[in-house]
Amino acid sequence: MRIAQTSDLWWKNAVIYCLDPETFFDDDGDGTGDFGGLIQRVDYLAALGVTCIWLMPFYPSPDRDDGYDVTDMYGVDPRLGTLGDVVEFIRTAKDRGMRVIADFVINHTSDRHPWFKESRKSVDNPYRDYYVWRKDTPPDTSEQVVFPGEETSIWTQDKATGEWYLHMFAKHQPDLNVANPKVRDEIAKSMGFWLQMGLDGFRLDAVPFFLELQGVSKEDAGKIDPHDYLAALRSFINRRNGSAILLGEVNLPYKDQLKYFGGPDGNELNMQFDFLSMQNIYLSLAREDARPLAKTLVGRPAIHPDNQWAMFVRNHDELTLDKLSDEEKAEVFAAFGPDPDMQMYGRGLRRRLPPMLDGDPARIRMVYSLMFSLPGTPVLFYGEEIGMGEDLRAKGRSAVRSPMQWNDTENGGFSTAPADQLVAQVVDGYFGPKNINAARAKRDPDSLWNFIAALIRSYRESPELSWGEFELIKQPNPGVLLHSCTRAGSTLVLAHNMAAQPASVTARVSSPEDPEETFGGAILLDLLDGENIALADDGGFELELERYGYRWFRIQRPTDRRI
Question: Do 91 and 139 contact (CB within 8 A), yes or no?
Answer without folding.
Answer: no
